[in-house]
Amino acid sequence: MFVGVRGKGKSMEQLTDTGCITILTEEKRSREEANGIKTGRAWLEIKLDHLIHNAEALKALMPEKCALMAVVKANAYGHGACRVAECLNGIGVEAFAVATIDEGIALRKQGIHGEILILGYTDIARIHQLVHYDLMQTVVDYDYAEKLSGCKCRVSVHIKVDTGMHRLGLTAEEPDKIAKVFRLPYLRICGIFTHLCISDSLDPKAVTYTKGQINKFYAVLKNITDRGLTLPKLHIQSSYGLLNYPE
Question: What average pLDDT does this structure show over 61-73?
């Protein structure tokens, strides 16, 4: 399967799910079609002005001090991470999220600036790359936080709180461990977040579950401040979450 990305006046990148890249320009595609050549290729055409419109529409819904973090993991869900991030950088988006360290490095090598958060696990052996490329690492559990700190490198991290998705993170029911992460040396706590895993649904059961997640997250934040610790940046929303739970 081929997935491509095209901007105005630019060539089309053909990206396979194995990571191989070939170039198919508009001119070449038109020539092949004119000659009756059917390659069987498929591509996804991205209109960057529509991307900008959607990003600006979301930003307009946010409070004044709230910023947009663009999730561009898995090659921006097959839409071309570097091209999408470059476009969003151009309209003032200064925060991005990826799944892996290699995705973050690829953005840096393409000149993407601002914060880049790795949502998944990164092997401790690669901590120097986190520092070199100025990437932020998610703390996926307390043991991992200790190992990061034990490397004795100043690394920027976000703490993931599991409020109900049950994938990664320190659970909301272990506030003591969450507070201990704040006190670990060498970790620069830049953010703390959770993920509202079914905020796209307005089914009554889904709404109840999501509100339960929100309450758990805020309870964790209160516990942190009650201990005299300063909260870093907070993030809890996704696109659907912003639309369905704007408060």
Answer: 94
